[in-house]
Amino acid sequence: MASKKQTASKTAPKGAVKSAGKAQNASAARKGRAVQVKQPKPWGLILTFSAVGVVALGLIGAAVFVVWDRSQPPEGVTDFYGEYANYSEVRNALTDGEITEDDLEHPWVMQQTHVDNEDPSAVPEYEISPPAGGNHLGAWQTCTGSVYDAPIVDGNAVHSLEHGAVWLTYDPALVDGNGIEQLSEKIQGRDYTLMSPYQDQGVAVSVQAWGVQYQTDDIDDPLVDEFLSFYILNGNNTAESNATCSGGVATTIADAAPTG
Amino acid sequence: MSRLWRRPAVLIAVTAVLMLVAGFAVGWVAGTSAPGNDSVEAGFARDMQTHHQQAVDMAMYEWQNGGDETLKAVAYDIATSQSSEIGMYRSWLREWGVQLSSGERMAWAGEEHAHDGDAPGLMPGMATDEEMAEFKTLSGTEADVMFVELMIAHHIGGVDMAKIALDLSDDDRVVDAARRTITVQQAEIESLELHLDRILSSVEE
Asked: By the 8 A CB rule, do B79 and B60 touch?
């Protein structure tokens, strides 16, 4: 055992370290015994470890990319958070005092008051149509994969968006019966979604979650499905987490209209 | 720089650190992506949220509008326990970094179960919109009876879903939740049947 150890200590790696150390201190080496012969560069070693290093860097890069990519919203979505990526980032910036609500381009993304708390007849107003967030009514629209065949009240639907739902609206002047059927298949029974016609929308299909919107004239647009999958209950984009979609208002404007 | 090459120890150390970081990186991705977006586990957790949600909806209505005090207590129990389970499933999905909703219901259960629901877009045992609408016009004993019928069907569907998950998954938490669902809901089905007999016989008297 002992002899084996001795020979091992004299072979390549450890020897190389020693010689490299001595080369740095040339004068000390000259004072000593024989002049050290300059050793050839250990190319094999360099190549091997460089290759491993490159693979390691590749893995790190791939890992960072995969995790980053998963958190990216679908392309083409309009968001109203300005320079921030989502609701949570704006909320954090406000809480940390980095900005105030006046600094926001669209302050309504941070406005979540029930306007009818004091005055039951108060109606919220929205900058964009269909709305994608802002102050709203105390009751939410039931959004348990609910397909409404007549327009619903904006202030109720916006409350559903606050709970993490995605609201799909279509322009009844631009989408026919087959189109409506096709769209409702995306929504029917899918929790945290709701769908309703929207008069004078001007574009066939619009999908909105809190603070974000995507509009298209193509009923088959795959981005509608991507939008649904990405934004339903999105943790960074739900203005009120863990709230439910059931038990809300389940009527439309047609139901509420005075009869006769 | 050239001196660095003469020190294999430095080279080895740098490479070792890189490999270690790479190992963490791979583990990081594996940790956040397993179970992945299309996995049985994620699909089960997503669909159970939706399934439970309807039970909460039914039970909350019964709690408010039912006639039988004992059954209303059962409804309270179902609403609160299934609500907290929805939160559990949701936190799994957030932890796994997967989407909380998928357009393909029951897809995780494999082709043979993909169309198990009684109506398009519904999972096994779920009530249709029409049934829910009808239930929500009732009160008192009528509500009690329909509640029991809807909830028994709902639980049978829930037990079926849990059994499929138990077959397909070996994730500890999923297996544990599926087992508990099967045990609890099967027991509840039996107790609901007894409640129904009791309520119906008291009506007859």
From this structure: yes
